[in-house]
Amino acid sequence: MSRSATYSRHRIRTAAATALAAALLTAAVPADADSPAAPQAAPKAAQPLSVDLAAPEGPVLHGANGSLYGLSDDGVPTDAALAPLKLTTVSQKPEGGAQHPNGDAVTVSKSYLRNGGGDILVMMQDIYAKWPYEDLGIDDYLTKVDKVVRDIADAPHSERFVYVPFNEPDQIWYKLGVADQATYEKNRDRFFRDWKTVHDRIRAIDPDARIAGPNESSYHSRLMGDFLTWAKKENVLPEVTTWHELGPDSLRDFQGHYDDYRALEKRAAISPRPVNIDEYANRRDLSVPGQLVQWVSMFERNKVYADQAYWDAAGNLSGSVAQSSVPNGAWWFFRWYATMTGRTVKVTPPTPNAVDTLQGLASYDTAKRQAQVLVGGAAGDGHVTIGHVDPKVFGRQVTATVSEAAWSGYEGAHAAPRTLARTKLTVAPDGSVTVPLTRMDRMSAYRIVLTPAGSGTPQAAQVPWHAAYEAEDAAITAGKVYTQGTVSDANGYAASGTKDVGSLSQDTSKVAFTVDVPRTGDYDLSVLYGNQSGGPATQRLTVDGGAARTVTYPSTENWTYRGLENTTVRLSAGRHVIALAHDTAEVTLDRIDLTAATKPSTAYEATLADTTGSPSYDYGSASGTGTGTLVLGSRDTAVFDVYAPREGYYTVAPSATGGPLKLTAHGATTATSRRLYLTAGNNRITAAPAGAAPVRLRSLNVTGAGDDTAGVRGYEAESAALSGTAKPESGAHASGGAYVGRLGNGASNTATLTVKAPSAGRYLMAVRYANNERRDNGHAYNTDIVSRGADITVGQGKPRRVMFKNTWGWDDYWTLALPVDLAKGANTVTFANPGAYAPNLDRIDLAPVIG
Q: How far is Cα 100 from Cα 93, in angstroms, rounded to an integer?
């Protein structure tokens, strides 16, 4: 638990940040080809990355998607955030461990395993309260080992747990990294004695236990070699080998570490063990797709498991999910990783084993007739050459589809990645195709999907005009430029361009951005920010010195922990000054993005969906949205991950032919209605034939901005029947100016709302709440936030425990949507928690899932 500048400061994307070069293909026509381009430095040679489809590395492992303390409670993050990522490993604390207030292994295993999770590593020493762990002697530790092992051995699915007896023994308790050989050997021998004692104690209680170690804070060849030789002799080898790779240098050195470990294993005549790098990456890497692709590519290439480190708060998959179910850019990168099937194939980057360079991983699935390439980590231009494109699999022409997962901050919502280009390519005589990448953003990851082309012309990607402006390059009044998240300060938080503008605390503080837009119209304005005030903060937004309006920024964990706030501005063609000035509290500004507003519409390609059964893939026609057709038989399904920016009704229309199709969302199924109520964040929607006839499904098309008028009924919490200590409290940021506090912490302290349902069926109940309970465990760098639970009872049903994640402030309100079944007419919904306080309850909105 030890816990660069972009290519252009002012970036304008006339067609896309990354596009297929027009010289090689019929690229998507720029949405605003006449828009001005930012001044560019002298062009540099494009960075080459090659993929060899004829050089398989083994089945896709998906091993590098894990997280340390990525889960904090059963339901945090939500099932909709967990299931699509297909996690193979997580690391958590023992049940009741004192190191942190949540993240107990058995507790979180419920949601982890029901969503297809793999192994759960139990950090046994996290039973202790202090960091570094207090050294009270091996006898004291053994009493704790007994409890930890009994809890795990008695848990459901105990075979899925892996015991990690020691955490960073090279630093903690044993000091194994010392240079003096005599001191090292003395400390080493003590560690070896304790390892054997604890190993044997675990085995005595749980004979089938899997044990992992030695779990160094960094790779030490001396210790690893000694450990393997000794552990084999004593018959106490771990089943899983673990160590940590936490610094930027790991991007350069890991391959050497891994090769050295395998050589030591071979020298000791030990059968190859699974390797789990159960802590990796720094703060500057987490949440950043372009950084994560560098780490994941080297772990997947070597077929090792790996968990992102725990530098901040539990329950957000190490910065890969905003709130409980809202994806950020990193979440979409890991979603892409989860969709890779078949075998990985050899990728040769321009500079192997280097820090902050263009890297990638690739998969090849001959059954699906798909190749996928994920790349990122560098700014500027590049190109990906895919070799040995088999004509028996792809034909003589292919469709290449390029998408981008951008950095949206740790707490910034990211819509489904935009398709930047979709075009036919002719395979060269040498069996290769080259996909140029232009104007890459260092913090973004990019996906290339290669499929057979078929007849016709693919629908060109529609990419709206977009420009990004760094705050440090704007006109700054009463503020200060700070540098964040560099290689030399790797545990600083990520910032766009490695700089931001803070100390905007004076009445005169202001950041004024000079922008140029190509056409008169509405533009989406996104502000990348940090809010350290402990509650919502505001700034005054003006355009060209005109009338001010208020922008409200929800709290973030700290001033360098990025969120994303969105609004819309009306601009005439030409140059403008957009200013953000101090109003209430202090906000740090990182970057603003302007994007030409378009009608909200996203097409989710069926050939890239999760499937069950044995559907087939047909690429006979390239015409229309998507790269082909998924043919579903009567026992097949396709599962789509559909993003919604807010709760409300959306039009969900499949592009399908053949037999009738049914859609299932949040437990409600329809074969007719296409108006579905979705929750803010990710929604899993399943498509399946409604009869025996097969269905040819090309895409699932989702339009709308979230209609919350017709069909949605809202209820203020203060209108509930309250009992015990539960009472209304005034709140400036609460809906209707009030919320219900002091709810729970006793069986009689409840709130009961009477709601009306026009018909019986499945509804979504969006609960608006606030929670900022924290428990300071004295940890040096983790923020020990606490989720609050509520037992929710609908009618005469059984109570359901629902966990509500911390919202960073008592005046910050989030929503958590829950499926509920209602009878026609009046229904009661009761909120309670006899054992602890429930979150502050502000409002609920109820709507039938099928509208």
A: 8
